[in-house]
Amino acid sequence: MNFPILSSLILLPIVGALFLFFTKDKDGNNLTAKYVALFTTIVNFFISIYLWISFDQTTSSFQFVEERIWIKDFINYKVGVDGISILFILLTTFITPLCIVSVNNTVKNRLRDFLIAILIMESFMIGVFCALDLVVFYLFFEAGLIPMFLIIGIWGGPKRVYSAFKFFLYTLLGSVLMLVAIISIYWISGTTDVIALYELGIDAKYQNLLWLAFFSSFAVKTPMWPVHTWLPDAHVEAPTAGSVLLAAILLKMAGYGFIRFSLGLFPVASEVFTPLVYTLSVIAIIFTSFIALMQEDMKKLIAYSSVAHMGFVTLGIFTLQQQGIEGSIIQMLSHGLVSAALFLCVGVVYDRMHSRLIKSYGGIVTIIPKYSILFMLFTLAALGLPGTFGFVGEFLILMGAFKDNFLVAVIASFGVILGAAYMLWLYKRVVFGKLVNEDLKQMVDLNRSEYLILICLAAPTLFFGFYPEPLFNTIEVSVSDLINMHNLNIASK
Amino acid sequence: MNNLNLVLPEIFISLSVMFLLILGVFKKDSSQLTFNLSLVTILVAIILTVNETFSVNRITIFNDSVVIDRMASLMKIITLIGGFLVLGISSNYLKTFKIFKIEYPILILSSVLGMMIMISSNDLMVFYMGLELQSLALYVLATFNRDQLKSSEAGLKYFVLSALSSGLLLYGCSLIYGFSGSTNFDVIANQLSSNEYALTFGIIFILVGLAFKISAVPFHMWAPDVYEGSPTTVTLFFTMVPKIAALTVFIRFLYVPFLNLIDQWQMIIVFLSIASMIFGAIAAIGQINIKRLVAYSSIGHIGYTLAGLATGSNDGIQSSIIYISIYVVMNLALFSCLLMLRRNDQYYEDIDDLSGLSKNHPLLSLSLLIILFSLAGIPPLAGFFAKFYVFKAVIEQSMYFLAIVGLLSTVIAAFYYLRIIKIIYFDKEKEKYDSDHGLWLKFSLTFSTILILLYFIFPSQLIEVVSRIIII
Questions:
Q1: In chain A, where are the structural domains located?
Q2: Does residue B151 lie in a domain region?
Q3: Cα–Cα distance, A283 to A304 (Å, whole number)
Q4: Contacts of A272 (CB under 8 A, 6+ apart)
Q5: What residues form DSSP beta bridges with A71?
Q6: Which of A155, A472, A487, B369 keeps 20 to 30 A from B84, CA to CA?
Q7: Does some domain include residue B232?
Q8: Which chain B residue shows the shortest CA-CA distance from A144?
Q9: Alpha carbon distance B109, B115 (integer Å)
Q10: Per-residue pLDDT of chain A (493 residues; tens, 9 = 90+)
Q11: What domain count does chain B have?
Q12: Which residue in the set A138, A150, A161 is minimally distant from B379, CB to CB?
């Protein structure tokens, strides 16, 4: 047996959190705690880079698989990665250290506890992306609720209690049906091992109900229209680092779940329910884009834009075309980077002015030029300008959609225009225009840590915008095999 | 009579009870001594139970009226450990209220003895004897803080309603005896003709009596008042130990003599289960007093336990046993926290008293956080696995409705657990509580919290023990 690299990825943040637990909790600038957390997450990032380098891109089978008996004759602890999941792990380990650096400016009290919550969150998120057993997946998927609830509730804004409860209960409600489905799968197929289930297949007559049960959980988490309402609340009230984690990674769990479980386990049902997903996705894209146009709160606007972007993702996944699914994965990654960056951008001005309202800004371009340039870059990436990461995914999704359903693709394309509208309008109102609010003159430009974070996010946004090849190389075989398997299953039914 | 060693624990406890009574009467200021000796008694009983009965598969003695099997020995051990810890924790609390008397440990011992008899009963008469022995002791325990109005009220309420349910139960027993000609479970099972409606009546009467003892909806009315009024340590005892015994009898009664009549009783259990889960979840939302809240939450948890029983399979029984075991640990942890809310010799039991606890008592709040999330059934804590096993068994029998209702009610229940967490973590802090807690309290809190937190690492051990219990 090789070195259990995935388990160590999962465990390392917990070890870090334990270590933090035994340090003294001082109010104010708790540097030791921060360095420990930063060190842990950076080590984790390097491990995952190593994982990516040593990952064999020519095969779609799961690699670095670890299996241990967990509950005898029932569940095995099984983890492994393929081309789809490895990039999400990378995204997680990349975003978390940035969150921890950003904490400097946002979290004032109980820093140590906050870092512990973030570390535990990281470990659960990595667990979600490499779990190869349904029960293990569910465990990580649900366990993430606890730290996130606390992050929103303890360190959030004025309406934090309401938002935390809404977030928790919505997600829990969606997930319990998935639990029923998982147990049912165990009794139908005799195993909850994902690889074994891929081979066995699940009887077509059960698939529709099971698919719906999984869907209820993923749709809430994605979030899809009409169960998206928890997201704006949660985003607005969460502290910046929490919003970043939520937007960049938590939402991706559901997209990943759609690809791994909904498509992989229930091919027949996925075909059946494609119209449903299309409808909801298109509504999400158009409807939430319009809502985003009307927002006065910057964070809320970005939150609604997340819903719209995730609408593209679900659309792409259920095109069941190579381009569509690859596009969705790329879109999730780019959204992970870009939305994280946008929330951080909002965080930067919020820390200085303590307002998230668009109307209290305007004309800041001359006062904080560095910030304005970076903010510009991420705005353009969010609306999908060619040459940025955001373009690649959106383009591929629409390509896949055109292949599958012309009408849906046309309507979704309008979403791109709307996306450009609300993002550019936001940028115009915040950065350009007349400087009305005198207080804005006191603002200072990005400090070193903010600069570092945004540059770290800008680099891959540009790099992969021009050269997404390495990502495609990683996911290509896995996605094409997934589609082949899917088509095979459909043909045999 | 060569199998007398199998009931050695019971014999030992009853002898000790008599001895301690005499000791208490004749020796002055012997409370501490009685107390310590009672602890030793339970400890010895645990050792005896493990030694004498743990490896026994199934033996019936005393004219088949007492049965020693895997379930009995496991449940007895849990009961004894529960009693042991409750007794240990109690001393400081009782001393604060100046009710540290010899009767307390003796009553606990006798009710534990009653429960052990219940657990082992294979005969309606023996079962009833055990039941009454434990109930009588519990009536007195509920009123133990007799200078307080609420405590007396609790005892009286419990006595009146419990006596009523015992009456119903006894009536059911007589009906069953009348129509089957025996009080022995095995004999009834053999002589059963399923067309007897009167027999069904008998079963229903007994079920009502038992549902009352475990406070399943709609026979739960006594629980909130009694839980609130009784001294906290007694409430802890109420929520843990009698439920184990009643559940065991429930299992034995349904699955030994009346397994063939499953069509008759399954619907009843499903109803009790669903009603308890939903009612427990909804009624707890508006509570202010933690003990009342625990009462409603325990009603909900009993609902889940009954869901396992409703399946009519061995998996279901095992899952119920796992559920109740984990539930007992969680309750122990919760009450240990509750008993730590002490300031200047006064105990606080309102939810608002927890406000901002995390600022002054980070460790206590962390344990509460873990316990409450576990009670809400969020993975990876032990409470999740308890529910997981139950629903696994339920879904095995394709009882999807029960499973979905049950899981939805966990979402409702999550709300009030979250509310407490919110109060602890998000609200303004209050004055500090005392932090000089007894060793017992610290031990039981640490022990149970770690068990809850780390259960997921070794989930197989408990299953392995429980999976040896095969009733059908």
A1: 5-492
A2: no
A3: 13
A4: A208, A211
A5: A75
A6: B369
A7: no
A8: B379
A9: 10
A10: 567 888 888 888 888 888 888 877 665 557 778 888 888 999 989 998 998 888 888 888 888 888 888 887 788 888 888 888 888 999 999 999 988 888 866 677 778 888 888 899 999 999 999 888 999 999 999 998 899 998 888 888 788 888 889 889 988 988 888 999 999 989 888 888 888 888 887 887 888 889 999 999 999 888 888 888 888 888 888 888 888 888 888 888 988 999 888 888 888 888 889 889 899 999 988 998 999 888 888 888 888 988 998 998 999 988 888 888 989 999 999 998 999 999 888 888 888 888 888 888 888 888 888 888 888 889 988 888 888 888 888 888 988 888 888 888 888 888 888 888 888 888 888 888 787 777 777 778 878 888 888 888 889 988 988 888 888 888 888 888 888 888 888 887 6
A11: 1
A12: A138
**What is the C-alpha to C-alpha distance for residues A466 and A79, in angstroms, rounded to an integer?**
33
Kindly determine whether residue B373 and residue A146, on different chains, have CB atoms separated by under 8 Å.
yes
B361-398 residues labelled b (16+ CB within 10 A) or e (exposed): beebbbbbbbbbbbbbbbbbbbbbbbbbbbbbbbbbbe
Domain for residue B416, yes or no? Answer: yes
Position B197, amino acid: Y
Rounded Cα–Cα distance for residues A213 and A220 (Å): 11
Q: What pTM was estimated for this model as a whole?
A: 0.92
Residue B277 resides in a domain: yes
Q: Does B461 touch chain A (CB under 8 A)?
A: no
Cβ of A143 within 8 Å of Cβ of B380? The answer is yes
**Which domain does B394 fall in, by range?**
258-472
Degrees (nearest 5) of the Cα angle B328, B331, B334?
A: 155
Report the residue of B367, B395, B397, B402 to disrupt the A interface, i.e. the one with the largest count of A CBs within 10 Å: B395
Cα B122 to Cα B162: distance, rounded to the nearest angstrom: 22
On whether any CB of chain B is under 8 Å from the CB of A161, the answer is yes
**Which tokens go with B121?**
């009963």
Kindly provide the ipTM of the predicted complex, given to two decimals: 0.90
Instruction: Return the number of other C-beta atoms located less than 10 Å from residue B124's C-beta.
Output: 25
**Cβ separation of B426 and A176 shorter than 8 Å?**
no
